[in-house]
Amino acid sequence: MTLLSLLFAAFVAAAAPASQPTVPDARYRQGQTFQVGDWQYTVAKVEWDDKYAYAGLDGKPRWRSPREGRLYMRVQLTVENKGSQAAEIPPLRLIDTNGRRYEPFRFDPLKTAPPQTQRLNPDTPQKTGDVWEVVPRRYHLLVTDGDGAEAMVILKYQVPKVKK
Q1: Which residues in the chain come in under a pLDDT of 50?
Q2: Is the separation of the CB atoms in 37 and 147 below 8 Å?
Q3: With a threshold of 0.85, does the pTM exceed it?
Q4: Which residues are CB-neighbours of 92 under 8 A, at least 6 positions away?
Q5: Whole-angstrom distance, CA of residue 135 vs CA of residue 54
Q6: If residue 9 lies in a helix (H) or strand (E), which one and from where to where?
Q7: Taking the chain, what is the end-to-end CA distance rounded to the nearest angstrom?
Q8: Phi/psi at 54 (nearest 5 deg)?
Q9: Beta carbons of 8 and 1 less than 8 angstroms apart
Q10: How far apart are CA 109 and CA 74, in angstroms?
């Protein structure tokens, strides 16, 4: 193989599009109740905000603003463990229309908080949710059963109206 053909092969490999993250086939609409493995979900609402409240070391409320061009997106849902024993609620992920996944926003100024997990007994509905610091646009919520099964919730999107 000549040097020219090696360079051409390297150029073609570098120019090939990167593989996109996989997007699950199961898709539901906000407000629908659906089940993924032993977990039943209902996404209630999505809110946008320009402040994030947290408790300071003195216990008093503090406020944090998002980075430039971003807002806090709060997703509220009800989750129910339909299994036979208590289990940790699987983590939620946000996914954009290009398949990029986002972790929930965690503000821990001292870096001392343990990961947020919550155990849920069987047949006990729990209202819960998460917050993401993102650019306002259309997103989907990725829910799992904690063992590999995934489903996508198509979130309603409106131009955010931020409370002042």
Answers
A1: 3-23
A2: yes
A3: no
A4: 75, 77, 104, 130, 141, 142, 143
A5: 21
A6: helix 3-15
A7: 66
A8: -150, 160
A9: no
A10: 20
